[in-house]
Design a protein that fits this description.
Helix 1 (11-22) crosses helix 7 (204-216), helix 3 packs parallel to helix 4 (91-119) and helix 4 runs parallel beside helix 5. This protein is α/β, with parallel strands linked by helices. It has 9 helices and 7 strands, in the order E-H-E-H-E-H-E-H-E-H-E-H-H-E-H-H. A 7-stranded parallel sheet has the order 3-2-1-4-5-6-7, with helices on both faces. The radius of gyration is 18 Å and the shape is globular.
């Protein structure tokens, strides 16, 4: 058994690699930072192949794609966010984010579906976010990118279901998690105790364990935590303009001046 995970050098990608290794899976760990990948390899019990790759580069996407056929699980986890007012946030950063969060996910998901359908087996997990369900003032492009991942995965699920394929696809939509994401996006999710923050963050190990468990059960939409499930439920009945006002207020508390 083997799994390929992008963005495996830190955060939930790192934790999911650890969990799958404990379950006996060999790992192909993909990320840009070789030093972090080496630390992961030293920790895990099963065979770990590290692949230094940047999913914004076509040649690296091809390198990743060439290995999908040999794995049983493919997890599209690489991603990051760009925080700020849409009119003033750096376009170059946003386009790189879209290449990572949307373009690479789109290409690799398509290739994984094609190769898994050919053998009529395999699990695909695309990592989206709770952001996929909401508008994101001050985080607009990131929220939009995660909505793309969410909707793409749902559509593919129905196509596979109608074909009676044994290929299983899931989308993970976690809430705020304490990872390197905050440093890259220049935001702070806080702990719920810090003045001016007030956001409850989830434990990345618990989120990852829950995600793997639900994926292997064949569940489509994976939302860790009761609070996040409640938030998605009430989102359906709240007027869009009111929701935008509320989200703007919450987002404005995240900014960290570097």
């Amino acid at each position: 058994m083997k799994a390929l995970i992008t963005g495996a050098s830190s955060g939930i990608g790192y934790e999911m690699a650890s969990i799958l290794s404990e379950k006996g899976y060999d790992i192909i760990a993909v990320a840009r930072r070789e030093d972090k990948l080496k630390k992961l390899k030293e920790k895990l019990k099963t065979n770990v192949e590290i692949m230094c790759a940047d999913v914004t580069k076509d040649e690296d996407i091809e390198k990743i794609a060439s290995r999908i056929e040999e794995v049983d699980i493919f997890i599209n986890n690489a991603g990051f966010g760009v925080f700020g007012d849409f009119s003033s946030s750096p376009l170059e950063d946003e386009l790189k984010m879209m290449d990572t969060n949307v373009r690479a996910v789109h290409i690799l998901t398509k290739l994984a579906v094609q190769k898994f359908k050919a053998k009529n087996s395999g699990y695909i997990m695309n990592v989206s976010s709770i952001a996929a369900f909401f508008p994101g003032p001050l985080f607009s492009a990131y929220y939009a990118s995660k909505a793309y991942v969410y909707r793409l995965t749902l559509a593919l699920y129905e196509e596979l279901r109608r074909e009676k394929s044994n290929v299983k696809i899931s989308v993970l939509c976690p809430g705020p998690i304490k990872t390197e994401f905050e440093n890259v996006a220049k935001v702070s999710f806080g702990t719920g105790k810090e003045k001016g923050r007030g956001l409850i963050i989830a434990d990345k190990e618990k989120v990852s364990a829950y995600a793997i468990k639900q994926m292997l059960r064949g569940n489509l939409i994976i939302i860790p935590g009761k609070l996040m499930k409640i938030a998605v439920f009430f989102r359906r009945i709240m007027p869009e303009k009111t929701l935008c006002k509320l989200l703007y207020f919450l987002q404005s508390k995240k900014f960290v001046q570097k």
